[in-house]
Amino acid sequence: MLLGLRHNRKLFPAIIMLWWGTAFSLYAATPQIIDAKPFDDGFVIASTDGMLYWTDIDCVHLDSVNLKTELAGIEVTDGSVLAVTPDCMILKVERSGKSSRLCRKQITNNADKVVGIACSGKKTFILTAYGTILSTDDNCKSFTALDFNGTYFLYYDHTRFRAISASDNSIFMAGIHDDGTPAVYTSTAGNIWSERTLTYTESGQTLSLEHQPLSMAYDSRMDRFVLGCTDGYLFYLPGCSHCNAIESKTHSDITAVAFNSGYCLLR
Amino acid sequence: MKTKQLLTIIAAFALCAAPAVAQESVPVYKNTNYSFQERAVDLVSRLTLEEKQALLGNNMAAVPRLGIKQYNVWSEALHGVLSGANASVGLQGPTSFPGSVALGSTWDPDLLELEASVIADEARAIFQTGTKGLTFWSPVVEPIRDPRWGRTGESYGEDPFLAAVMSSGFVRGMMGNDPVYMKAVPCAKHYFANNSEFDRHVGSSNMDSRDMREFYLYPYKELIEKDNLPSIMSSYNAVNHVPTSASALYLDTIARRTYGMKGYVTGDCAAIEDIYTGHYYVETAEEATAAGLKAGVDSDCGSVYQRYALSALEKGLITEADMDRALVNMFIIRMRTGEFDPLMKVPYANFPASTVNSERSQAIALEVATRTPVLLKNEQVPGKTNKALPISLKDIKSIALIGPQADRVELGPYSGRPEQSSRTSPYAGISKYIADKGLDIEVTLAQGGSTKSKSNLLYVAYFDLEKADGSKSHHDATKYSSSSDGITVGSGMGTEEQVRSIDDGSWTAYENVDLINVDKITIGANIPTEGGIIEVHVGSPEGNLISTIEATRASGKRVGGVYGASTPMEGKVNRLGYNGPQTLYLVYKAPEDDEIAEDVLEAARKSDIAIVFVGTDENTATEEADRLTLNLPGNQVKLIQAVARENKNTIVVMQTLGCVEVEDFKNLENIPGILWTGYNGQAQGAAIPMVLFGDVTPGGKLNATWYKSVKDLPPITDYTLRVENGKPGRTLWYFTKPVSYEFGYGLSYTTFEYSDFQISKSNITPNDKITISLNVKNTGDFDGDEVVQIYMTTPDSPASLLRPIKRLKGFKRVTIPRGQTRLVEIEIDCADLWFWDMKSDRITYDSGRYIFEIGSSSKDIRGTVSANMNGRFNPQLKIVVADCRVSVLEIGQTAQTQTSACLTDDSFIGLDKATVKYVSSNPAVASINASGLLTAVGPGIATITVSVTYGGKTVSDTYSVKVNADLSLATLKNAGKSLLKPGRNQYSVLGKMSSKVTATAKSSKLSVNVEQAPTVPGTAVVTVSEPVTGDVQSYYVNFGTKGVPDEFNNNSLGSQWKVIRRNDENLWIDNGWLSIIAETGDINGTSDNAANMILQSANTDWTIETRLATNAVPVSAQNAGLVAYQDDSHFVKLVYTAAGFRRGQQAAALAPASGNVQLYVEENGSSKSTVSVSLAGAEIKNNNIYLKLDKDGSIYTAYYSFDGKSWVQAGQADISLKDIQAGVMACQGVMNMRMGMRPGGAAAAAPAQQNNAQFRANFDWFRIKNR
C-alpha cells in the first residue's frame, strides 16, 4: 500500500458554487455583476451601476457602497478596493464607504473602454478593450502605456480584450482574436507578453478552448488563473502550461469569477 | 483642475530603434556566415532581463524589436503530428501512423525512419502555416520495464537495445539528413526511469548505478552518441531521491559531459514546479528555478522560470549567465530549424499544406500498418486440414466481425488526428476489401462486448456527511486509516489530492466517523474512465451497507478524465441507529459486466469464420494512469470465450497497448488463430484484411515479454531489475518464470530455416566490430519477413555479478521470397557489449566467452556462435565539453574555461593527464591564455576551441562568447564646444553658427559616422556601430533657429510658416484667429494625408502653446491641436479630439458632451503610444482649450488648460525626432482599424470619417519659446 504520496501539497479546495441569484437574490436580475474579488474572508462584488458589495465567504451581504458611476472592474489592494470605470476613472474605496478618486480623469484610448484592473506587486494595470495596458506604480500619479496590438503587430493575432487578472508575479489578459477564438497572454512585469496555449486534454485528446473568456480570476490557493467563459465554462490555467483544464459549471455566461480560500464565486 | 495627472508614455528607446542608420550592418544573429552557436550568443546578448525571463518557458514570448516570433516549444509527434484539421490555413488533420509499440514490433528501424520522415514533412507543412513549432517532444525511449506502465504503448520495447535502435530510426527521420538544418527536432523522453504513472510527479525511482546505466540510460546514450540527439526531456520523478530535473549529475554530468549532448533540455510539464511542490527537494519557486537552471534544464514547460527567474536572480540564487546559457541552448535549436534564416537557404522550407495527410502519407501509413502485426497463434482449424491463417476467401461464404473494436479506430495517445474519412475500421476495411475483390461473402458486424476499464475506477477526494438538522461534516478521503492493497494518493497533473489506484474491490476506511442522524453522504469523486459503484459500509468492508452511489459514466455522472477534479456525488444514507463513532468504509466496485448479447452469438454461430476484434483503448491505461491489471478490459475475454464456443474457426485480433493476459483463451482449440498489433494508425482497418487474407505475411515480433499473470511481477514501484531476495527479476534480462509469449516471439504464414552460423572473429576486444552471418531459407509456401535476433550471454562471468540471462545485441528484418535463401549479416560493435562496473563507476567488459544466440525469438534459438573477449580495455578519449559559464561579457571581464574530458568507458580524466590547448577565433575580441582564462578584449563574437589530447587522440569542443560594445560617445562637439551629456541621444543647438559636428566613440574599434546637417535648420546624425556584430546606436544633433510666434493678427500667414497639403478653401485667418476646416485625413498610422498642417521649423528645444476653439465638440476621430513633426511617420501630436464610443454604437451617432485631450506618438509609421485624458465633467467654455507642448531633447511633455493659467500635465513621451517642425493642424481623423467596431462587434474596416458635420478649429495664437 502506498500512502501519502503528496502529503502537504496544496490542498484542493472544496469548490462551492455560490449562485448569486440564490444567495443574493436582491441583485440577481439587474444590474449586471461585472467583477468580483476576494476580500478578507469573503468577497467584494461590483455591479455595472456602481454598487460595491462586501460579503462573507457564504456570500451573505455585509456592506455596500454606491459609487454612482458605471464600473468596469475592481481590484483589492492593501485592504482597499480600486474601482475603475469604463472611461478610466480610478477610485479608491474603503469598506466604510469612504471613496476617493485617484485619477480624476479618463485615461483611455479614443473610442476604447477599460475592461479591467489588476494589481501585481507594486504595480497596478488597467486594460482596455483595444489593448492599451496602462500601468502605474506610484498610486496612479503617472502611467506607462503599452499598445499591445501595436507592439505585437504581426507577432500575435490582433486581440480584443475582456479581462485582466494578476498575482504577485504574473499578469494574465484574456480576450478574443478577430476570428472569435479565445486568447490569453501572460507577463511577469507587463512589458513582455507571451501567448498562452489554450489547449486541454480530455479523453486522451488534445482539444482547444472554444468558449470565449468573459472574466478572469486568480485562485491563490491553487496558484492558477481561471477564465470565466461563455456557456458557463471555467477554464483553468495552472502554472503548468500543458495542464489546462475545462469544467462546465452552468449554462449561463460567467461574467464574474472569484476565489477565496477554496470558495468559488461565479456570476 | 485640482489633481494633476501625469501620464508618462514611454516610446521605445532601444539600440537599433533610431530611425536613421548610416551604415547598414547585419546583426550577427541574422548573419548566416556565423555558426548557430555564435548567432545564438549574439541574439541572447541583445535581450533584456525581462525578455530573457519571458523566453525561458515553452511559450516563448515574441520580441518584435529583434524579430523573434512567439514560439511554443511544446509539440508532439509520436506517430503523427498531434494536431487536428485547420481549414483556415488549409490543413487537413495530420496522418496518424502506427504507434510506438506497433512500430517496435516491426523490428524495422528503416521503416520507422521512413514514417518519421513523413511525419516531419507534415510538421514542416504545418509549421509554414504558423500554427505550430518544429520542436517535438517525441519519441518516448524509456524501455518497457513493467507492462502496467500507463505509457507502455508509447515505448518501442522492453530491451533497451531494441528501444534505442528503433528510436534511432525515429530521430533520424525527424531530423532529416541536411548537414546544416534540421527538418524537425525530436526530443527523447522522459529522462529517465519514468515509467510508473500514478506517482510520476513525486516518486523516486530507486536503483543502483548498474541498472541505471545498462538499462534506463542506455537508449539516451545511444541516441546522443550516435545520432546527435538534439533534445531530452527531464522527467517528473526523482531517481534515488534527487529529482531528475534538479540533478546536475543526471543532466549535465551524464547527458552532456558523458554522452555529449548538444541541444536543449526541456523539463516535463510542471517538472520544475514538482521540484518544490511534489518532491519538496527545495522550498521555494526561486530555489526550484535555480535548481533546474543550474542542473541544466533550459526550458520550463510550466511557468516557474517565467515567473521566478528574475527574483531568483535578485536573490543571488542564479546568475544572468545561467539564464543566458539556457537561452543559447534553446536558440541554437531554433536556429538549426532555419527559423532565423532566409527561406531559400532552408531545404525544408517548401512543404505545402497539401503535404498533410497526402496520398503519399496515407500510403505509407498503410504500408507500415501491414508490417506491424504479430502472429501469435496459427493452428489448424478444428476438423479441417488448413491452418487458420491466412483465410482463404474462396472457401467461405460468411464472416462475422465481432467485438468492440470491430468497427472502431483506436489511434492511441499523442497521435495525429486525421479526419474521420481517413480512418478505416476493420469492418470498413474488410468490407471494402471483399467488395473490391468482387466476392460474394456475407460480412456481419456484431460488435458486442465492451472495453470498459476496470482499473482506476474512481479518484476520490472527500466525503461530506449531512445530518437531519442540516449540519455537515467534511472528511478528507485521502486521510484514511487503512485501505486495501494498492491504494495510492496523488494529484497527478492536477492539484487535488485524491485516493487513486482504485480497483474492483478496493476500499478505504475512516475511523471515528459520527453517523448519528446522518441522512446524506456526498462523495467528491472523479470518474477517470468508466467509473464504479461506491458502497458505504460500517464496521468492515462487508459490514452494514448504509449507502450506494453509482459513480459511473453509464449513470450520466460527469466524467472528468485522468486529469479531472472531483465532482460531488450524493447518496441517501440509511440510518441504522448508530449512536457513537464508527469506522466507515468506502468500498469500490466495478460495474457488472454486460452479458454477451445473443445476436453476437448468433452471428458467430451462423458464419464460416468469426473474427473477434478486441483490445485496449485510452481508458485502459494512459498518461497519469497505470494499469492495475493486465486483463483485456471490459468483458472481452468472456466475449472471446463465448464466440469460440459458437464457432470452431474463431480468429482473435487484438490491438492493445502491449502485453495482456491471454492464458484464458490462447489455448482454446476453437481459436486456431490469434493476431496482435499495437495501435496501428489510421489505416489499421485497411491493413488488417491484407494480413488476414494473405496479401501480406505477418512478420512482426513481440517487442516485450507477455507475462502469464500480473501476479508474476514485482510491485510497479520497484525499479530494480535483478532477482533479489525472492523478488522476481524484470524483463527478458532477468525474468525466469514461464511466460505466455517471450520477447521477440512471432509466427509467420511461412517457415524459415537457419543455417551456416558464422562469426567474423573468435577473439574480440571492445574496440572490434564483428559480423555474425547465417543463411535463412524460406521453406514455406508464402513470401515472408523474418526477424533474425541475436542475444548475448556471458557464461564465464562470475555468478556473483548476476549478469542478465541474455540481452538483445543485434537484429535484422529480412524479406525472403518462398523457396529462397538469404544471407543475413548482422554487425555488432563490441564496444556495445559492456556492463557497468559499480565499484569503479565506469564501463567494463567481462573476460571470457561471449555467446551469441541467433534465433527467431528470445527463446527460439536456432544456433549460436561465440567469441572470447579480452576484457582489458584501453578506453579512449570520447567527449570533451568546454565552456566558461558566461556567454556575454563586457570588455575587460575575464572568465575561466571549464573543461571536462570523458573516455569511452564513460569515466572522466583529470586534465592534468592530458594536453589541453585553447584557441580563440578572434583574439581581438576574446583572448585566452594557456590556462584557459578568457579575457574580453574588444567588441564582437569569438569562439574558443578547446582541444584535449589524451592517449594520442585529440577531441575538441567550442564555446562562443559575445563581448558587448560600449556604443556611447567619448566626445560630441560642435564649434569646439562639447555637447555631450550622459545618457542622452538627442541634442539641440540654437542659432546659426557652424553646424559641423565631430564625435568619437569610446572604443577606436567602433565605427563612427557623422552625417552633417546640410543646413541650419537641420540635423546631424551620429551613428556608432560595431562593425562585426552590427550593434548600432544613433545620436541626433538638431540645429535650429529661434521660433517665430504668431498671434494671427495679420490676414495671412507669416513667412515662417509652411503649409503641408495646403487647401486654401479650408484655411484662413480672420479677426486674430487662424481657422482650419478639418478635411478628411490624418497623419496617424498609414493615413498620411492630413491637409493644412501649418508648420514652422522648430529644430531645437522649446515650448509651444496655442489656444484652440472649435465650433463643436469633436466627434469620432476629429482632432485639432499642436504637432511636432519630422514627417508623416514620425511625430508627436497633442490634440483635442473626441471621447470614446461604446461597442455597438454608431460612431457618427454619438454626441459626447466633451472630448479628450490626446497625446499621440508615432514612430516609423506605427503608433508608439496613445494616451487620452477625458474632459468629461470639465467646464469648457465655448469649446476653448489651451494646449502646450514642451520639448527637452527627446522628452515631450504635454499640458492642457481651460483658462491658459492653470495647466494640467496630460502626458509625456520619449521619441527621437530630427528636422523637426512645429505648428498646428486639424483633420477629420481616421478610425484606427483596431478602434473601429461595427455594431456586431467585428472590427470595422474604417476609412476616414465621411459623414461628420463640419469641424472647424480656430487657433488664437501659436507661441513658441526656445530654451
Short description, anyone?
Chain A contains two helices and 25 strands.
Tell me the count of domains of chain A: 1
Structural class of chain A: mainly beta
What is the CATH superfamily classification of chain A?
Answer: YVTN repeat-like/Quinoprotein amine dehydrogenase
- Spatial order of the strands in the main sheet of chain A? 2-3-4-5
What's the average pLDDT of chain A?
80
Secondary structure class of chain B reads: alpha+beta
Query: Spans of chain A with pLDDT under 50 lasting ≥5 residues?
Result: 1-29
β-strand number of chain B: 71
Q: Describe it for me?
A:
The complex is a heterodimer of chains A (267) and B (1267). Chain A has 267 residues and is mostly beta strands. Chain A has one domain (8-266): YVTN repeat-like/Quinoprotein amine dehydrogenase (Methylamine Dehydrogenase, Chain H), CATH 2.130.10. Chain A has helices at 20-23, 148-151; strands at residues 17-19, 33-39, 42-47, 51-56, 61-66, 73-77, 80-84, 90-93, 99-103, 114-120, 123-128, 132-136, 142-147, 159-166, 171-177, 182-187, 194-195, 199-202, 205-208, 213-219, 224-229, 233-238, 245-248, 257-260, 263-266. Chain A has a four-stranded antiparallel sheet with strand order 2-3-4-5, with no helix packed on it. A four-stranded antiparallel sheet of chain A has the order 6-7-8-9, with no helix packed on it. Chain A has a four-stranded antiparallel sheet with strand order 10-11-12-13. In chain A, a hairpin with a 5-residue loop joins strand 7 and strand 8 (90-93). Chain A is globular. Chain B is globular. Chain B is 15% helix and 32% strand. Chain B has 1267 residues and is α+β, with helices and mostly antiparallel strands. The interface between A and B is large, with 82 and 116 residues.
Chain-wise SSE layout:
The complex is a heterodimer of chains A (267) and B (1267).
Chain A: E1 17-19, H1 20-23, E2 33-39, E3 42-47, E4 51-56, E5 61-66, E6 73-77, E7 80-84, E8 90-93, E9 99-103, E10 114-120, E11 123-128, E12 132-136, E13 142-147, H2 148-151, E14 159-166, E15 171-177, E16 182-187, E17 194-195, E18 199-202, E19 205-208, E20 213-219, E21 224-229, E22 233-238, E23 245-248, E24 257-260, E25 263-266
Parallel strand pairs in A: 1-25
Antiparallel strand pairs in A: 2-3, 3-4, 4-5, 6-7, 7-8, 8-9, 10-11, 11-12, 12-13, 14-15, 15-16, 16-17, 18-19, 20-21, 21-22, 22-23, 24-25
Chain B: E1 6-8, H1 36-45, H2 49-54, E2 59-60, E3 71-72, H3 100-104, H4 109-127, H5 160-175, E4 188-191, E5 204-205, H6 209-216, H7 218-227, E6 231-234, E7 238-239, E8 242-243, H8 248-258, E9 264-267, H9 271-277, H10 285-295, E10 299-300, H11 304-314, H12 320-336, H13 359-371, E11 374-378, E12 398-402, H14 426-436, E13 442-446, E14 459-467, E15 472-476, E16 482-483, E17 488-490, E18 498-500, E19 507-514, E20 518-526, E21 531-538, E22 544-552, E23 567-572, E24 581-589, H15 598-606, E25 609-615, H16 636-646, E26 650-655, E27 673-677, H17 684-692, E28 706-707, H18 731-734, E29 739-741, E30 752-759, E31 763-764, E32 769-778, E33 784-793, E34 807-816, E35 821-829, E36 835-837, E37 842-844, E38 848-855, E39 861-869, E40 877-883, E41 888-889, E42 894-896, E43 898-903, E44 908-909, E45 915-920, E46 926-928, E47 933-936, E48 940-950, E49 953-963, E50 969-974, E51 977-978, E52 986-990, E53 997-1001, E54 1007-1011, E55 1018-1025, E56 1032-1040, E57 1058-1060, E58 1067-1070, E59 1073-1077, E60 1079-1080, E61 1093-1097, E62 1102-1110, ...
Parallel strand pairs in B: 4-6, 5-7, 6-9, 9-10, 12-13, 12-25, 25-26, 26-27, 31-39, 41-49, 52-56, 60-70
Antiparallel strand pairs in B: 2-3, 7-8, 11-27, 14-15, 14-20, 16-19, 17-18, 19-24, 20-23, 21-22, 21-24, 28-29, 30-32, 32-35, 33-34, 33-38, 36-37, 38-39, 40-43, 42-47, 43-44, 45-48, 46-47, 48-49, 50-51, 50-53, 54-55, 55-56, 57-61, 58-59, 59-71, 61-70, 62-67, 62-71, 63-64, 63-70, 64-65, 65-66, 67-68, 68-69
Helix pairs in contact in B: 1-12, 4-5, 4-13, 5-7, 9-10, 10-11, 13-17, 14-17, 15-16
